[in-house]
Amino acid sequence: MSKIVVLNGSPRKNGNTVKLVDAFVKGAESTGNQVTIFSAADTKVNGCLACDYCMRNEGNCVQKDDMQAIYDALYQADSVVFATPSYFFGMTAQIKAIIDRFYASAVKPLPITSSALLVPLGGDPETDAAAAIVNYKSVLDYLKWEDKGMIIAGGVMDRDDIVGNPALSKAEELGKSFQ
Predict the structure, then answer these.
(1) How far apart are the C-alpha atoms of 59 and 135, rounded to whole Å?
(2) pLDDT digits (tens, 9 = 90+) for 7-33
């Protein structure tokens, strides 16, 4: 059994990203995994200040915002899943703020060993998700995490466009693969 943190970067309530996350969670929980979901739209996470307070204080961030609860979950997790629509060719600002705050883990390493990426987007998966994929792979490379998989669902712009899309069953299967 794994402890998985899902970071949902979509500001849209009940949109395509939520449905993709729900499918992943269904699969992950069906095999006994424990999943904690954070909706970036429902949290107040400030961007990194680059003040290096965390570097001088054992990885503790000077900012006391909702990132504290996310840190608590991440330091108990084995895996993290990034779920973000691609807005203007990259991850959303909401999830990027959370990722930037991973900076503190340079001093206090996260116990996470693996990760996955879920990206619904309105356009072409090959071109429109490229920046999000590069960002994701760079994070994994730096933190030495295993990539468990990426689900990129193109052509899902409007609410519920993802309903019936094969990406949902792929996300569920990806969730089952976490052990």
Answers:
(1) 22
(2) 999 999 899 999 999 999 999 999 999
